[in-house]
Amino acid sequence: MDIHTVKKMEKKAVESSQTDFLRMGVAFVFLTIVLWYAFAIDQGAANHAFLAIAALFGAYMALNIGANDVANNVGPAVGSKALTMGGAIIIAAIFEASGAIIAGGEVVSTIKKGIIDPALFVNTQQFIWAMTASLLAGGLWLNIATKVGAPVSTTHSIVGGVMGGGIAAAGFSIVSWGTMGKIAASWIISPVLGAVIAALFLYTIKKTIIYKEDRLTAMRKMVPIYVSLMAFAFATYLTLKGLKKIWPSIMDTANAIFPFALEVTKEPSLLQALTIGLITAVITYVIVKPQVARASLKLGNSVKDANSLFTIPLIFAAALLSFAHGANDVANAVGPLAAVADAIQSSGISTKAAIPMWVMLVGAVGISLGLALYGPKLIRTVGSEITELNQIRAYAIAMAAAITVIIASQLGLPVSSTHIAIGGIFGVGFLREFLSTTTEQERIEAEEQQLAEDKVIKKSLKSEMKELKAQEVKTEENLARMSELKILIDEEEAKIEIEKKSLKRAKKAKYVKRSAIMKIVAAWIITVPAAAILSAVIFYIIEGVMS
Question: Alpha-carbon distance 116 to 178, whole Å?
Fold first, then answer.
């Protein structure tokens, strides 16, 4: 290794170290500001110090949600090159924060998913300790998962944290084990649904566009339909999941604008959401069809050209997924912090609690900062380290994310957006493996035949060499032939070695990295118990210190 290489490595290490310190510095400043603000408000309240501690842990949790969970919304778009890493971070940060602040709602369930019975807490103090422990435990587990490059569910991390803190405070009877069973079932339901729907969409696009001889004509006809389907799915998804907490306000505004009276409901019904989705799809089709026709005039008949038409829809999908995630999941993530704030102010335990604006801002800003500082690692994992993505494959994954949530929410099935997105990536990868089986097998058989022929040639050359060596009298002609044979045998051996390696690679070739599957599935399985154990330990530490 020369001195220049050593200097380059040293420079790279220094730059990496400086970047790490900068990230930690920005995160530390954010945590300090949150701690200071929480400590400055309501200083006369009992347990006031715990509000500041819970706020600190809530901010830490939010940072780790941004670092881990948001990658599922933008990872496929980045992996397919529809978005750059910087563009994805900016879009996700803006729409995550907007979703949380605009549509996050004013009230949140303090006991996530009803997994524990608040009536079984001995006193308010224990409840505050359990919620504080759940925040820190959830944040720690997400931090560990991000470090090893495993995208996990924020919801499951919070569920595990609340469960562990509740068990430590009041025993195993506090847990609703039926609810926990449904959550455990989602470990299978979410990725399987995501995989099947993503694979179906990808296969449909291949049949209607990619496998057509005249792809350009197929693009003009089918791409507007696919983009409209995406608009339908996302408008429906956003209505059901992203706008449900401000739906009454939306309906009141609509009644004030339009002359006909609309029935004001607490949450949007499936029919209302589907109607909005259908209207959005029709408008999208009318707008997109002429644009695709114009764009196709500059395109060729290649798969790459077909992919390019899905770029802009993917950018919108990443933004809408981020908005819905911010509206739906941020409030849930800061639920324990809102619970602590409510318990301290009311000196009681409530199943519902108002979310102060500062608490929502802690969640929104923390997630955006976590994404910007530490999100690229998981974005790369989701976007490119599981399977290779292009725009069409990323489109299929985005459709799976929206449609699976719509179906699951109507069937009452608990699903995880993280598991759906990763399941969708697995689905498109395994479909590619399945579709390529015949072609790959033909190639493998051809290589095996060539290898066998070369082995026969090598054997024949060696036999001739053996016969020449066996002759007692070596003529100049024989010696020249032996020298020539040695060169030919060496060349044939080198050729055979290359063919063996190529054949070995062909037989091992997979479109989905098996190591990634094992790592991610293992992380999913242990998320709830790991967060629960961490939370219980933290609860006992808090109890020991406060006793």
Answer: 11
Q: Residue 300's CB: how many other CB atoms inside 10 A?
A: 11
Residue-wise pLDDT tens digits, 421-476: 889 999 998 888 887 765 556 656 666 777 788 888 888 888 888 887 877 777 77
Mean pLDDT of 105-122: 68
Distance CA 504, CA 499 (A): 8
Hey, what amino acid is at 28? Answer: F
Q: With the C-alpha atoms ordered 43, 44, 45, 46, is the resulting torsion angle positive or negative?
A: positive
Residue 535: which of 133, 173, 210, 184 has the closest Cα?
Answer: 133
What tokens appear for 458 in the block?
A: 């090598």
Residues 6 or more apart from 269 whose CB is under 8 A from it?
none
- Placement of tokens 């995160």 in the chain: 27
Q: Are 27 and 369 in contact (CB under 8 A)?
A: yes
pLDDT of residue 515 exceeding 70, the answer is yes
What pLDDT score was predicted for residue 56? 92
Task: Take residue 73 and report the two structure tokens written for it.
Answer: 């919304």
**Would you give the distance in Å from CA 339 to the centre of its chain?**
28
Neighbours of 499 (CB within 10 A): 18
Tell me how far apart the alpha carbons of residues 267 and 240 are, in angstroms, rounded to a whole number: 8
- Considering only CA atoms, which of 106, 97, 109 is closest in space to residue 330? 97
Rounded to an integer, the average pLDDT of 201-207 is: 92
* Buried/exposed code over 268-290 (b: 16+ C-beta within 10 A; e: otherwise): beeebbbebbeebbeebbeebbe
Place of tokens 């644009």: 291
How far apart are the C-alpha atoms of 305 and 308, rounded to whole Å?
5
CA–CA distance, 111 with 166 (Å, rounded to integer) = 10
State the helix-helix crossing angle for 215-237 and 311-333, rounded to 10 degrees: 20
Name residue, tokens 């983009």.
227
- CA–CA gap between residue 135 and residue 158 (Å, rounded): 7
Position 45 scores a pLDDT of 61
**Residues recorded for the chain:** 547
Rounded to whole angstroms, what are the CA distances from 480 to 459, 466, 491? 19, 14, 17
Q: How many CA atoms lie within 13 A of 384 on its CB side?
A: 13
**Which string of b and e fits 439-477 if b means at least 16 CB within 10 Å?**
eeeeeeeebeeebeebeeebeebeeebeebeeeeeeeee
Instruction: Give Cβ neighbours of residue 111 (< 8 Å, ≥ 6 apart).
Output: 118, 162, 339, 351
CA distances (Å), origin 236, targets 264, 368, 415: 18, 25, 17
Detail the DSSP E strand segments found in 52-183.
Answer: 107-109
